[in-house]
Target: TBC1 domain family member 8B
Amino acid sequence: MWLKPEEILLKNAFKLWVTEKGNDYFVLQRRRGYGEGGGGLTGLLVGTLDTMLDSTSKVAPFRILHQTPDSQVYWSIACGGTKEEISQHWEWLEKNIMRTLSVFDSSDDITSFVQGKIRGLIAEEGKVSCVQEDDPEKFREALLRFEKWFDLPQKEKLVTYYSCSYWRGRVPCQGWLYLSTNFLSFYSYLLGSEVKLVISWNEIWRLEKTSNVILTESIHVLANGEDHFFSMFLHLNETFLIMEQLADYSIKRLFDKETFQEEPSLSDPLQITKRGLETHARNEQFRAFFRLPKEENLLEVYESFLWVPFSHFNTLGKICLSESYLCFASQDGSQCHVIIPMREVIGVEKPDRSSRALIVCVRGKRALRFSEVRDFERLANAIRRRCGMTASPQGECQNLINHFEDNPEEVALMVGQKDSSKAVSTEALMTVFHPQDTENLDPKMLKEKMKEQSWNIHFSEYGRGTSMFCTKKTRDLIVRGIPEALRGELWMLFSGAVNDMATNPGYYSELVDQSLGTSTLATDEIERDLHRSLPEHPAFQSDTGISALRRVLTAYAYRNPKIGYCQAMNILTSVLLLYAKEEEAFWLLVAVCERMLPDYFNRRIIGALVDQAVFEELIRMHLTQLTEHMTDLTFFSSVSLSWFLTLFISVLPIESAVNVVDCFFYDGIKAILQLGLAVLDYNMEGLISSHDDAEAVTILNKFFDNVTNKDSPLPQTVQQNSVGNNDKASSISKVDVSDLIKEAYEKYGDMKSEEVESMRKRNKLYVIQTLEDTTKQNVLRVVSQEVKFSASQLDELYVFNNILLPVLLHHDPSLAYLEQYQLGFHQFSLLFSLLEPWSLCSGKDTLFLWAFRLLDENQDGLVNFKEFCCALDILYSGTFTNKLTFLFKLHQPPECQKTHCAFCFTPTGRGKVDLQAYLKQWQDEILKKEESIKDLPRINQAQFIQFSKTLYNLFHSDPEEESLYRAVARVTSLLLRMEEVGRRLQEPTSPQKSSTSPIQEAGSIPQEVEWSFAFEQILASLLNEPVLVRFFERPVDIQARLDHAKCAQLKAKTNK
Model:
């Protein structure tokens, strides 16, 4: 264990210790009387003395001391009861501390650093134990320090904290790392030097584990163009996992506020805990590995052995139990895994208590035997409870298996082959348009039948349907290509879509009925692309295929309006329809869009960009020869985009592309990345010798045109690799897709799915920050043409608008640049109160509401950044007339909004995108002419009184406040007199008009005549008061106001 450093003077001391290891800074010693040698008489004496002492006075037999070369003073820093324990501490020091100490110049600095680090480790161990014991005392102390050291909002939720070192240049600072929902914070105070760092998760561009000569293991954070390194963690992997989860959580909240609605532990940022983040990460990994629906969560894990009948041995692994599934994976994750839906379980039995075993019987004459399960009775009860069954009598599972063996015709009905679907089309299009001729078998069809036979043998050994064992042999068969007749069934199985369809019977038919006849932007785009989907295939030259494609795409757009429809979905879906029934094709599309390729099919294709960044990283790792020749790899990102979006379907002939899709449904995006590397490797020489990007593209296109599938049973009329291209391609060798895929697995198959997911997370931050930076630059470029603010001031306004706000309630990245960040009324009033140039003393809420209504031209309850900046530009840089016009228009709120209250203004949102409305708005903006003051309507009596009050409020705390008040009073009095004179001049003089009826004379009360003012009258009157003109034309420093606003907002938050 680590010890609080204490000084020990060894000079002339009695030799009770023997030095076992040593270097310039540390010494590992063994107490005499322990270990080899014993130490003679001295050792015997020491051993006897230690034996006689009680447990509280005993000295540990091993210890580590810290020293410096020029000092005789030693510091005890660790002790251990065994050689193994002390050796672990010694190895940690050598790995994490030794290289670091070389950067210090003085011995005192070295000793101070070591002492600080050891104290941090002790505190870290104490903190971990407190967390494990659910003792909140230590956490409460850390929370108080966090609130004291960092000037952050009071509601900022601290998740966890760690002891570590932060590197400033070549010198480390020992301190504490605090991880909260919105910020990464570090604090250190050593020898009078304070170091404080606060980074928003939204500002992080890269987060990764790294190592170099000085830092063996550290965490690298890139934010705002600066690199930050944190090292010497007691639990580095745990720390990195929490940081990764918080960064990912922040990004997901930014782009999809509904992502965590179904997860109570993460739905509210104020309720996030370390345990909740770890659980979320574990559930995500569990669902991704076993391809389970997003509703499934990992509930229990049991270590056990599973009897593998085809190999005749027990394999060690883990049982993972969720609400609806029992899953098993061997320890290496690839040797064997099996997924058992609870709906398929028909019996659970405990045959042998001595071996702690249980047998799970599933439909399809199969039973799985788990042994050495530590809490096997609890597991058996959990399975029964989820299946809604009672305890199975002894031997019932075996009876069920015998029954299936005697009645094999029942098996097919119980392996998920039953058809409860109400889909419009009940057959795969390939079956309809290319039925197999079983009588006339050519060599290709014979080979196809041999493939089918291989799979049937596999099914007999490994099972068929949802509870099939997936092993290395399964992958080998897939690499060779799935037979045409089994492709749809196995795609459903490996993607997990079979489970989605089984748990949602009739769902697709309902969607088809509901979406039928709807007209949206998505349906318009679908209709446009229907005839572009595999147009050379006979299935999509007929109404049968086109109608099925329309129904599937429209139903999915109706199901998931966030995605709706995206180009490339039509190509993918058309291939799915060739081999799967219509309803199955729908669920396969769901699996691809929502699980296997997340964030691919949307306006910004973030998922595809992330995987392209991963692809670039893999190119640098595996194809160094190519990277040396082409330092800029962005070319591969642009050329490979269609590879990822369409799974190579758009670049390979259809008969070859389906083999790639086979591998994708089994191995996920890993299969596409591997194949991409293999393609570049195969064309290495041509790419290196190419002179420009166009030549490189030509090389790749020629290669794809010559990828064949010699085993494909499809007729030549369907195959895209037509005979007409043979003349041009005669000099280029053909490549069989099976050989290409096999080569990809042999060279790059050692890539693990976990590593790919880690690379995805690492690159996602960079991709999203790049997109956000592009959005920012485009917005600033457009707005800068409309306002007089400098580039730096606009940049600060943008940051202030988007980052300092507590929550981005109205962020929609699917909209145009200017519309992505929107302000609702409450956010607008907060920002406007901080940034408006005058000090209003009263009536703020009403005035802010009027300003919001004035800027919200399309009346959707939201104001964008351009509209906000244009308003501020008028108030800061506008002329006297501009500012007065703005104030005048504030007092004429739209008639349709007069009923709204300042505190209940609810944005209506944009709802469904109306393309015609956008086009009309765009046309109106083009034709919009410059507004003239003559076009402004007159204001009535009540509005004029309110206008005068607003002017009074503007002058609060101004040095010329009294003069300004008198000036406004003179102007008001003058305008009233003018109006009175004008009204008298207009009084009727005709006897007919002036005479009143008897009824009016008898009972009516004379009505008060309404009066009003034109803007020109008010402007002319105010121009006669120099003090008012000076006030409105006085320049105001926007930069000082921005700085003041930042401080004011933070103070307001911390004082809540």
Notes: The chain has 43 helices and 27 strands.
